[in-house]
Amino acid sequence: MRATTGEKVFGVFNITFLFGLSLAALYPLIFVLFASFSDPGQLVQTRGLLLFPKGFTFDAYRMVFMNPSIGTAYLNTLFYVIAGTALNIFLSSMAAYGLSRRDVLWKNPIMFMITFTMFFEGGLIPTFLLINELGLLDTRMAIIIPTAISAFNLIIMRTAFQAVPVELEESARLDGASDFRICWSVVFPLSMPVIAVMLLFYGVSHWNSWFSAMIYLQDRALFPLQLILREILIVNDTSSMMTDISSGDQMPIGETIKYATIIVATLPILCAYPFLQKYFVKGVMIGAVKG
């Protein structure tokens, strides 16, 4: 069936519009990438669009990786992401499985209380006092334990677990399977799309987290990468990376250091998206719609 002239025109317009929209979304990242590889002196003189690095150099990245705070913060962030996400998935899965079973006593009042916390919470000061009383202040656990379960993610996982046919559970019970066996051998494998989405949600949340660290941590040896990035970008603190540079060159190189730090902090989480993208839409739809 041949396309009409109107359909061809619409197709060209649609492709052009989407290409322009994609380019507008990607250009800020491309600008930061090119600027991070640019010569500082040439970059500050550039006006308008940056379509390629100006005077290609790795000086900014060399300064970033020479800074001991970046390396320590990177390791801290990896610990928070791995340990925190593992704890998130384990506790959320256990809670979602229990609340998704039909014969669980008082599951509706429990779900109401969990949902209630999404709209009303104690606030920053009571939470800080609680963390202090528990002895978690200025420890790694202050970043991981308070965010162990997200009510929103728990609801998504619970709805996904409810979609698993009850006949599979009954068949497993006839074979002598316990609830833990049913959860990990039947429900969990069948819910891998939503588990992958939860890995992405929790992982990105831990990777981007900086506010909790700013409130609960005082020891710089425990700071995550995003808190160091905040100091560089907002507080404009790049002095620790420029000790071997003359004062006249500090301002230009400071700008490229900011861009290089953004790339270093963003690249790992961007690399994780392609591996989880195929599960994303399916996982969210399974957890969001109850048939």
- Name of the CATH class: Mainly Alpha
| Biggest β-sheet description | none
Topology, number of strands: 0
What structural category arises from helix and sheet content? mainly alpha
Helix content: over 70%
- What are the segments in which pLDDT stays under 50 over at least 5 consecutive residues? 243-250, 287-291
Integer-rounded radius of gyration: 24 Å
Return the domain count.
1
| CATH overall fold name | MetI-like fold
Shape field: flat
CATH superfamily: MetI-like
Helix count equals: 14
Mean pLDDT: 81
| Strand residue content | under 5%
Tell me the series of helices and strands, N- to C-terminal: HHHHHHHHHHHHHH
Distance between the termini: 37 Å
User: Do you know the CATH architecture?
Assistant: Orthogonal Bundle
